Amino acid sequence: MSDKSKACSDSGCTKESCEGCNKNPESLIEKTNEFNSIKKVIGVVSGKGGVGKSLVTSMLAVLTNRAGYKSAILDADITGPSIPKAFGLKGKAQASEAGLFPVVSKTGVGVMSVNLLLENDTDPVVWRGPIIANTVKQFWTDVLWGDVDFLFVDMPPGTGDVPLTVFQTMPVDGIIIVTSPQDLVSMIVTKAVNMAKMMNIPILGLVENMSYIVCPKCNEQINMFGESHIEEIAKKHNISTISKLPITPEISTGCDNGVIELFVGDWLDNMAEMLEKTLKVE
Q: What is the structure's pLDDT at 282?
């Protein structure tokens, strides 16, 4: 690929006369391991950190797994990996001449994360952007995922190197955006939406985490961080599927104790059902 073509692809240019725009948009897509059969690749993104993106990724993998589908998680948040902790994974990933094996959770969710390769979970990953992006790409090309219905990609926050690498090198079928109720986030969400549109990636749903708490005495919903704007944001960007996650000890304790697979709640059921329909369309 020429430098001009690469620059075009990176910028999202749509000029008909541009050399890069006239190339096959899938020309950068990397092939996954020859032993893999992956039906749907779903990116889970957020415009900023700390909104519960990894939590939503974990819960969606658990829900689709409960529904009888083979689910797996590619942890692309290299410098802040939290998926293994949520699932209570203690072992390290093993390898063969054919590739890397994901670590499988108690209920059968396959996980690949940099923390499953480090000697110590607390070792910092002090790598520059290109190395991080290449590691994420290798999780797609070198890992022996096997037969998978849903491969969830837990992205790092923002719109930097790794999301761009994922969108350009993996056949992403759609993304789910995770946000929180603060007013600032509506602007941050728009950035994530606009990046997805630039890369021609469908936006499947919007999840508002920490949306409310439920009073234990009267069951009234209390908006701790102000009034929710998720409906307005969804309408503005033509996003049809939205979910709200409350602040509840059951969820946070499940992640902290590595038992996210045991969570009980219907907050993301509509999101899981939407994903199931995308699979059945084919």
A: 58
252 contact partners, CB below 8 Å, separation of at least 6: none
Question: Residue 267: helix, strand or coil by DSSP?
Answer: coil
- The kind and range of the H/E element at 92 are none
Chain segment 69-106, per-residue pLDDT in tens: 999 999 999 988 999 999 999 889 999 999 999 999 99
Question: What is 170-223 written as a DSSP string?
Answer: S---EEEEEE-SSHHHHHHHHHHHHHHHHTT--EEEEEETT--EE-TTT--EE-
CA distances from 82 to 32, 160, 194, 254 (A): 24, 19, 26, 13
Which portions of the chain are predicted below pLDDT 70? 1-27, 183-184, 281-282
DSSP 23: S
Q: Which sign, positive or negative, has the C-alpha torsion 30, 33, 39, 44?
A: negative
pLDDT of residue 1: 40
How far is it, in rounded angstroms, from Cα 1 to Cα 232? 41
Q: What is the pLDDT of residue 92?
A: 93
Beta-bridged to residue 177, according to DSSP, are: 45, 206
| DSSP states of 96-110 | ETTEEEPEE-TTS-E
C-alpha 137/C-alpha 170 separation (Å) is 8
- pTM for this entry: 0.88
- What CATH number was assigned to the domain covering residues 29-281? 3.40.50.300
Number of C-alpha atoms within 13 angstroms, CB side, residue 190? 10
| Eight-state DSSP code of residue 28 | T
